[in-house]
Amino acid sequence: MDAEIIAVGSELLTPFRTDTNSLYLTEQINQLGVEVVYKCVVGDDLKRLVAAAQHALFRSEIVIFSGGLGPTEDDLTREAVAEALGLPLHRDEEILAGIERRFAARGWKMSANNAKQADVLEGAVVLPNPNGTAPGQWLSGKFDGRERIVILLPGPPHELKGLFEAECRERLRAKLPPAFLATRVLKVAMLGESHVDARVAPIYKRFADVQTTILAGAGEIQLHFKSRAETMEAAQARVDEAADAVEEELDDTVYSRNGESLEQIVGYWLQMRNATLAVAESCTGGLLGERITSIGGSSRYFAGGAIVYADAVKTELAGVPADMIERHGAVSREVAAALAEGIRYRCEATLGIGITGVAGPSGGTPEKPVGLVFHALASAGGTEVIERNFPGDRKRIRWFATTLALDMVRKKLM
Hints:
Blueprint: E1 2-8, H1 21-30, E2 35-42, H2 46-59, E3 62-66, H3 77-85, E4 89-91, H4 93-105, E5 119-121, E6 125-127, E7 136-143, E8 146-153, H5 157-175, E9 180-189, H6 193-204, E10 211-217, E11 220-229, H7 232-250, E12 254-256, H8 262-272, E13 277-281, H9 287-293, E14 302-307, H10 311-318, H11 322-328, H12 333-347, E15 351-357, E16 372-379, E17 382-389, H13 394-413
Parallel strand pairs: 1-2, 1-3, 3-8, 13-14, 13-15
Antiparallel strand pairs: 4-5, 6-7, 7-8, 9-11, 9-12, 10-11, 15-16, 16-17
Helix pairs in contact: 1-5, 2-3, 6-7, 8-13
């Protein structure tokens, strides 16, 4: 069976509100062996909601609506689903009395528009909402000759989650045929999306029963594998077979096999090697240190660091010779190496990272353009320096730079 999610609310079509409910619902439904094949966001417009509901009911066996069950004029989900299914709405006096009691318990007078939250689709099972006034609704049966499950859930995330877990999950499990959905995620650092796909497409295409999705971010590629079978063991075996074959091709560029972040993996390696790390950051402005310390327990391996924007601070805190900066410039291979070596020495760390570059949007020159970053990794065995030109805006360049720095540490410890 396939599922579809319709998130309702004009606020979700603005830059100020994100639809997090569909992410939660997808995770929950996947755990029941059901794949979500469509998602959409629809504003508070009755005609558009009816059209979206009709399309969803035609193509998907399970249709879940989130939002639009409140008391205001623009809460139209009940009306839209009723029209799409050709079902009448009736006002449930028991629900209405419960809403009135809820207001009275808080010493509030219930306004008349709250009564619409007691409107129920004919044949629907009412799903109590312990965290709000709008109950959910559940319909299952044949609509236009097709077996369908239709679920209406409130929009506030704490209401939706509580209601789904208490009222929907086991109902769905009882209705669904035995099926299990297994997933696996590989993460790759500092390779391009097209390059990765060119290498691994011949491999994953051999696995017709495993869905493979490639997602690209700043300095990271994620390969998501998904397969459905009658047992979790069978589904997981196919996913693992495909993922293992891809990992063998990509070799040490794969830094995570089970969804861990690069920061987590670097922390694992530092602890396994009983090593410590210190950082001196110029253009990344503390982002590298923030990423490292975002992991709980990082004090066991992160010695500390310095944000060294001014040239005098590079000299004072990381020991970079002033004449070196004058000769080569603050953004240079030599200064990056000196930053790494100096911070390693001053923090008495196993490894030292130095980053210096031009993050933009200003400050670039023809010789040293925006996006140019030097990364240095110092250890007892010497210092490695990598020069890169990163694309994008300031935020993207800084993220790229810290990702490469973390991956340098990972590969060194491997």
